[in-house]
Amino acid sequence: MNHLAVKIWLSVLLLASSVYAGIFVVRNWRTIDESRNSPTNDLHIKPARPLADFRFVERSGKKIQLNELEGKIFVVNFFWANCPMSCLRLNQAVAAIQREFKDTDIQFVSITVEPTVDTPERLKQYADNLNAPADKWWFLNAPLSETQDLGTALKVNVAPTTHTDALVVVDRAGIVRGAYDFQNPVKLSNCKQKLRDLLVEQPVGWKPGGATNGEASATATPSATAGPKGT
């Protein structure tokens, strides 16, 4: 009888330990996820493949190389034009952010994941429907493999006809500083706050028109483009 009681108590203890371990793991996952999406916790990822290696065709027909963004803050998203729901809402969210930051030098970059369908002509029509300014908001087309490589470099999973809700923020030194789910109001607000923070942050070693050392300073300095008007 005593032997049976010991077995029962051991079983109870093992079960309790398993439950506690499960709760601990879940809490830690949540903590990690919240930390990653915190507006004060930068990713500081330097893409393994240099952004200068990526070449696209803009809706205007102009060939674009991503090193043209050197020294600029930019926001990247992936979409396909024939998606009438999530992708459209994504780009409507981008349009709202672009209007809010229109008086800054932030560049917005929307890249199709259906390059054979979303031709430059189709992208121009799509961009016109969003009243997207050609100088501040690019709509780009490239072979899907190249677009997926860029997604990998930016730590975002990109696949055809698969929604990618992230807005990826890259600083003036070419460092990925955050990926924000546009459908989450808190994270969307965090994205805009990150852009405001970056507008007053001076990357170490950056000079207008020059190269950077690939590191970003955590020290904010005053700037003429400290943020959009009214913020």
Q: Radius of gyration over alpha carbons?
A: 22 Å
CA distance, first residue to last residue: 74 Å
| Helix fraction by DSSP (H/I, runs of at least 4) | 25-40%
Mean pLDDT: 80
- Number of helical regions: 5
Number of strands: 7
Order of helical and strand elements: HEEEHEHEHEEH
The percentage of residues in β strands lies in 15-25%
Strands of the widest sheet, in order across it, are: 2-1-5-4-3-6-7
What about the largest sheet?
7 strands, mixed
Helices and strands: which structural class?
alpha/beta
Shape: globular
Q: Which regions contain 5 or more consecutive residues with pLDDT less than 50?
A: 19-40, 208-231
What are the key terms here?
alpha/beta; single chain; 5 helices; disordered C terminus; 15% strand; 231 residues; 7-stranded mixed sheet
Describe the structure.
- Mean pLDDT is 80; it is low at 19-40 and 208-231.
- It is built from 5 helices and 7 strands, in the order αβββαβαβαββα.
- The longest helix is centred in the N-terminal third of the chain and has 35 residues, at 2-36.
- The protein has a 7-stranded mixed β-sheet with strand order 2-1-5-4-3-6-7, sandwiched between helices.
- The protein has 231 residues and is α/β, with parallel strands linked by helices.
